[in-house]
């Protein structure tokens, strides 16, 4: 069974929308921040994450972004999916010495979530979407804004597939997926 997950963090909290078969997904406290400093500023008011969690999750989100962000064969194609000025070159491709350029969306911020069962805080990078808003690298979790808190399904923190070192998406590949977040937004139940 497949399902699509879209989450919008709002002023009064977070509301999760999507198809979830007949199961209810576990919810966790979550917050979206544009940078580590925003997280640190909010940590004093939070009862579930600390300044140390902010530093650790921001570092984790940066690493996950480098590994899982969507990659495109041209900057124009990347900007069609993520917005003007929202893309840059893939640093891993540039250092690899291969021919051609690969482009990926810039890290716009990150999600921090409370791990269930008292574990460490969870992290997930977010990238800009064309037309406004933000999404996780697969496009499966969408946010209307950053610097907000609420409840979110735990699948929002599932790591996407590795794209680093893979061939970049062509215009035809993006179209066949239905654009950024198209078919990549579906996850198996229990993933």
UniProtKB/TrEMBL annotation:
Task: Give the top-rank taxon of the lineage listed in the UniProt record for this protein.
Answer: Bacteria
- UniProt xrefs under Pfam families: DUF1190
Alphabetically sorted, this entry's keywords are: Signal
* Claim: Signal is one of the keywords in the record: yes
Q: Signal sequence span per UniProt?
A: 1-20
Q: Which InterPro entries does the record associate with it?
A: Biofilm_formation_YgiB (IPR009576)
The protein in question is named: DUF1190 domain-containing protein
Q: What is the scientific name of the source organism? A: Pseudotabrizicola alkalilacus
């Amino acid at each position: 069974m497949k399902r699509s997950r879209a989450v919008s963090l709002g002023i009064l909290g977070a509301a999760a929308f999507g198809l979830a078969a007949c199961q209810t997904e576990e919810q966790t406290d979550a917050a979206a921040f544009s940078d580590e400093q925003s997280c640190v500023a909010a940590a004093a008011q939070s009862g579930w994450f600390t300044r140390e969690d902010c530093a650790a999750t921001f570092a984790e989100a940066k690493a996950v972004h480098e590994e899982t962000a969507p990659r495109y064969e041209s900057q124009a194609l990347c900007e069609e999916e993520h917005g003007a000025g929202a893309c840059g070159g893939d640093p891993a491709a540039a250092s690899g010495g291969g021919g051609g350029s690969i482009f990926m969306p810039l890290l716009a911020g990150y999600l921090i979530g409370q791990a269930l069962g008292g574990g460490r805080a969870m992290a997930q990078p977010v990238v800009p979407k064309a037309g406004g808003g933000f999404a996780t690298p697969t496009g499966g979790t969408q946010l209307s804004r950053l610097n907000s808190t609420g409840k979110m399904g735990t699948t929002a923190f599932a790591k996407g597939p590795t794209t680093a070192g893979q061939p970049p998406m062509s215009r035809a590949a993006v179209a066949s997926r239905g654009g950024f977040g198209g078919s990549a937004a579906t996850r198996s139940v229990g993933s």
